[in-house]
Specification:
This protein has 288 residues and is of the alpha/beta class. It folds into 2 domains: 80 residues, ACT domain (Alpha-Beta Plaits, 2-Layer Sandwich); 195 residues, 3-Layer(aba) Sandwich (Rossmann fold), CATH 3.40.50. It has 8 helices and 13 strands. Strands 7-6-5-8-9-10-11 form a 7-stranded mixed beta sheet, with helices on one face. Strands 2-3-1-4 form a 4-stranded antiparallel beta sheet, with helices on one face. Strands 12-13 form a two-stranded antiparallel sheet. A hairpin with a 2-residue loop joins strand 12 and strand 13. Helix 3 packs parallel to helix 8. The two termini are 24 Å apart.
Amino acid sequence: MTSQRKESVVLLIQCKDRKGIVARVSGFIHDFGGNILDSDHHTDEETNDFLMRMECSTEGLQIAPDQISEAFAPIAKVFEMRYEVHQTSRRTRVAMMVSKQDHCLADLLQRHRRDELRIDIPLIISNHDTCANWADLFKIPFAVCPVTKETKPEQERHVVSLLREQRIELVVMARYMQILSAEFLARVGCPVINIHHSFLPAFIGANPYRQAYERGVKIIGATAHYATQDLDEGPIIEQDVIRVGHRDTVDDLVRKGRDLEEIVLARAVRRHIERRVLVYGRKTVVFD
């Protein structure tokens, strides 16, 4: 039986570090009768960037959750903060993008069915029809959007229109084997998470398992990161590795890598939707 989740509000903060920030934020929650469930913060000593995640229960809170952002604005102004307020009761609307390999898609769909991920999946988009059976099984609309080098701009415009139509808040590239253009990423209007089948920054680009095999590596990895216009260089959310040996073939590396890809992508999606990831520059802080 799934334990009932407590309703809560998450406050995310970024600013330059100064004395008194934690006290002021905690005092703000206290002034409205809130109970802090979780609080964490980090200061980058090289850049002096301060990043904070605070979660408080809505039970006993003497302000409506949708009024917190406006009420917090005067404090944010004093400390020159960028901040976001998120209600954990809201399910994130997520679109999956996939090509022919279905393992990451199938894993996320099953986690979603088990209610391990607080998301809604109104749409799956693919440039092939190979994974349509998974959409049928889980009763999710499946849009086939074929793409060639010549039709890529038109195809991306169509995909963006589909995402906007469904009010998508997060796109997950579950082994979508197309490079998203800078124009697409600028217009999509939400974060995009990609799973790369290597331990970045090693073996960037195509066929990383073949590259790893030819180098005789002793570990292989997988990396989930936010997609940016710089290929495979977006801020990293999650990584993991597994040992391999000299008897492993390329096919063995691919098989072992698939397991890692599923786990790493699922962790990244969970951390994102739980508002545990803060991006600053080319890096992230991921609060446990």
